[in-house]
Design goal:
With 258 residues, the chain is α/β, with parallel strands linked by helices. It contains 11 helices and 9 strands.
């Protein structure tokens, strides 16, 4: 079977890499909407039309499951995608609930990094309102970070300076967990570990998303993979250079997480 992974750019590769580790007997199609990346700074209705159009392109490839590997896209379009297509569809949400549960006994706060559009969505407010009964969650928009990631800007000095500037107004001793609420952001986990105090844990929703995918595949009776972890890359612009960029970015993740 083929499992589709969709994102505006290379961010969803962090989720795909998790799936390749946990579900290696599947085959994958990865689609990046390069015509419209990034989503997180664009109007909601425009982004929704981009998502529906690009997923339609993916469905022509004969998918048997779909992962919307983008928090922003999930908030905007996952409900409509589930109405349109009769196959397992898994979305993303920032890992706020597990972060709050992990921090409940420590008295520390939770800091969520996300795109401006994710933080503006009712789905995000509803999530925080539902799980944050102690008022310990703060949110930090990082609109530039997707651009850095899309440029494969992983220089330690440049990115450390960027994060230090963004965090300069925060007393990090008050925080116990940083949530990476955009799938692009885990590309910077190792750099963040070097600049954040050692007591701060860094979490994202990727592992939980792939656990949900695995459970959903079992429920649909398609859990037993017959593939070999092969990945086909596509992008909405059809740009061969971007296909090469995606391969390089996935290799970077393998090296970073090995």
């Amino acid at each position: 079977m083929t499992i589709g992974f969709f994102d505006s750019g290379i961010g969803g590769l962090t989720v795909l890499e998790e799936s390749l580790r946990r579900l290696p007997a599947q085959d994958y199609l990865y689609m990046a909407d390069t015509l419209h990346v990034p989503y997180g700074t664009k109007p909601q209705e425009d982004v929704k039309s981009y998502i529906l159009e690009t997923v339609e392109m993916m469905m022509a490839e004969g998918l048997e499951a779909l992962v919307v590997a983008c928090n922003t896209a999930t908030s905007i379009a996952v409900s409509e995608l589930r109405e349109r297509y009769a196959l397992p569809i898994v979305g993303m949400e920032p890992a706020v609930k597990p972060a709050v549960e992990m921090n409940r006994a420590t008295g520390k706060r939770v800091l969520v990094f996300a795109t401006p559009l994710t933080l503006q969505m009712p789905k995000y407010y509803a999530l925080v309102s539902r799980v944050d009964d102690g008022g310990i969650v703060d949110s930090l928009p990082l609109p530039e970070l997707v651009h850095y990631c899309e440029d494969l800007q992983f220089d330690e000095r440049i990115m450390s300076d960027y994060f230090r500037d963004k965090l300069s107004g925060y007393n990090l001793n008050e925080y116990g967990i940083v949530v990476l609420g955009c799938t692009h952001y885990p590309f910077y986990t190792n750099i963040l570990r070097q600049i954040l105090p050692s007591h701060i844990q860094i979490v994202n929703g990727n592992a939980g998303t792939i656990r949900r995918l695995s459970a959903l595949l079992s429920r649909y009776g398609v859990a037993g993979g017959r593939g070999s972890g092969k990945v086909k890359f596509m992008c909405s612009s059809g740009d061969p250079a971007y296909i090469d960029k995606m391969r390089k970015a996935l290799d970077f993740l393998y090296e970073s997480n090995s």
